[in-house]
Here is the input.
Amino acid sequence: MRAIHLIFIVLITASLVYSQNVSVSDYKVAVSEATTFRANGFWNWSQVGDSVYSNTASANLIFRKFYTSLPFAWFFNVDASGGNDDGRKTYDIIVDGNIRKYIWDKEDWFAFSGFSVEGSKDFAQVASNMTVGAGYGRYINATALAKAVRIEEHLIKDNVISGHLQKGIIINIANIIERENEYINLYGAEVYETQWFADIEKEIQASGLLRGSNIGSIGILRMRQVLFGINERVNQRFYGWDVSAGALFTITKPNKSPAGSPNLTINGRYSYPFSWKTQLNLDAGVFTPIDSSFAKEVTVNTGFDFIYELSNRINLLTGYRFGVFKPQGQTALVSNSVNLSFLFYLENNIYFGVNASYDKQTRSQRQMKTSLTLSYNLF
Here is the structure.
């Protein structure tokens, strides 16, 4: 056991050696908003002589509108499609939205709500549900900042820049990275990358550390490797904590069956980034129906995962999950699961993984598994 503790300390210490002008907790969520409306249609008609062999038509509509910031965020989406295939009409539509708002800007209390409505030609009626809840805490996704730091590391090693970028520059680059969906909506999925990279390059130029007039082809290559996960992986980075409680209400079901009772969910999560190479995540959740079986039928899920990036191409991922399902009037079922993985990102889009797992459930024999994986990205 002492040897394991020593190895853990060495890993953490080694990851702290790399000097950096910014830490994970410096990240501030970018303000981003965009609106997208796209529609397309298709019609195919063919006739031979006086006989019609084909008469089909279809149409699709997509609407997206969102606003994101730390104190307030909301999303609204519409996906609709319909068609006529030789007289057989079909349609499907999904409308959903959600909102999250910190009640006071300088306090950590927040409220959230969401809804979903789905209709289909095959449904007897529209299916719909609603979620409402509240919570306390601040839990920040800083993955974009981790990607900005990884890009900086590459640019320093390749002598594109002469040193570490200033904290403000790094955060600005991270904000641009996080706004990828906004760039896609504004410029289109096929060409947004050009403008996205250009804005990142402008921030690097503003630092005064660029050795040339631009980042060059090697800089573009490094950005693509980091942002699109080519030959390397940037694991998700979070910091902070929050707890929340909410209720899910099923309003209508597609087959007109009774909606049933609402369900109460209580969740908590905590993340601590020891450094840019290490990350610890904890989470827990409790679920119970809001009816006569309240607190008598309970589901509990909790666990943690630890990530250590030994290098840009070698990742160690460990995790543990614990679950309890207690049906009303019955014995609880308990499950335990431990996972350990080494991921190696080799040259020429070749990926190699070494995986091991241990699973044990009530009234079941323990299962121990090992596997080796090898994959290759064709495109």
